[in-house]
């Protein structure tokens, strides 16, 4: 059985849960409690030296790290339904939208960075929240512009079916809501996220639905 | 003619230059001066709403953003020499190594973040350097462990020819050196980076070789 090492609130694990569900794959979950720091334990680092979630061990024993690499692996091994369009330019657009979330927003706002801010840098709670929202707004403003301007957009980020871009967008929207970011300026993002969240694959991947949800 | 919008010291633009060179593709450069903030000008944002470099416009008019998406597009359109191995597990490993740099190190240490630290957060120069080096060491320790432990490694990150992972590693090593990070603890990273930098494609992509190098 495929095993996902994750955490219910981890945005990167949430992406992989969405993709596993879209592909109709069964999997076990092995929760790694990020708040208790279990991702830094030797036992977990033996599996993933990065000390990050998610990691995935497939039913044939392949051990994978980094959420986008995991998602593309699942797409290559289980091509239906596709996570990426067939044309190279469309594939590049979907990857760019996914990476705008995964390389420009999420890395700045994840738990270890927020802990460094309040710990090593000694910033107060309000300054931390301003930091968090700043990077969400920088990224979402760009994403909203791309989704509004570019012909590829549809009911989802690219066309009318979910892709890798939606699997990244929805967890980021969830996080932004949790940190009370004002999303009024992003109607297209909100509409696409609502469309995606209405699908069973996304609904079952939500943090509140996970076995370790606390 | 293909046009790369970049900046000589941008780590993400450097990745794309390496890949363009590995593929033997000719391209023009349109420098965007990040220190002067040209990436935030309306003219550039009309091209890339993210206000980030690189972006690439291909000779047939396709406009692309996000360095890893650009690299994979180039690999799909120009398959030789391949940037990724043929087997899905190998492809996932190369992508994970690339993303460990592109999602876990670089986003925290790029210019706009360092500016936020010294500007909005008012941290001093020494604290900024500690921040910079902290994320390099977190990422490089994980990368060194993966490169040392995993069977896939060779003279390069994966096997004995350069892949997408090396195109990410070399610019990150360059940046780490520029910020005077002590890399003694990472012999495998240093050896692979030296092997890659000895290749003409990497040498011609170096910041010092670019038309806008100042």
Description of the structure:
Two copies of one chain form a homodimer. Chain A is of the alpha+beta class and 214 residues long. The first copy, chain A, folds into two domains: 2-81, 3-Layer(aba) Sandwich (Glutaredoxin); 88-201, Up-down Bundle (Glutathione S-transferase Yfyf (Class Pi), Chain A, domain 2). Helices cover 54% and strands 7% of the residues of chain A. The first copy, chain A, is built from nine helices and four strands. Chain A has helices spanning 11-22, 42-47, 67-77, 88-109, 111-118, 125-149, 164-178, 187-197, 200-205, and strands spanning 2-6, 27-31, 55-57, 63-65. Chain A has a four-stranded mixed sheet, with helices on one face. In chain A, β3 (55-57) and β4 form a beta hairpin. In chain A, α4 runs antiparallel to α6 (125-149) and α7 packs across α8. The longest helix of chain A is centred in the middle third of the chain and has 25 residues, at 125-149. Chain A is globular, with a radius of gyration of 17 Å. Chain A starts with a strand and ends in a 9-residue tail after the last helix. The model of chain A has no long low-confidence stretch (mean pLDDT 97). The interface between A and B is large, with 45 and 45 residues.
Number-wise, the strands of chain A total 4
Largest interface: A-B, 45 and 45 residues
Tally the helices of chain A: 9
Overall number of domains of chain A: 2
Q: How are the strands of the biggest sheet of chain A laid out side by side?
A: 2-1-3-4
Helices and strands of chain A: which structural class? alpha+beta
Helix content of chain A: 40-55%
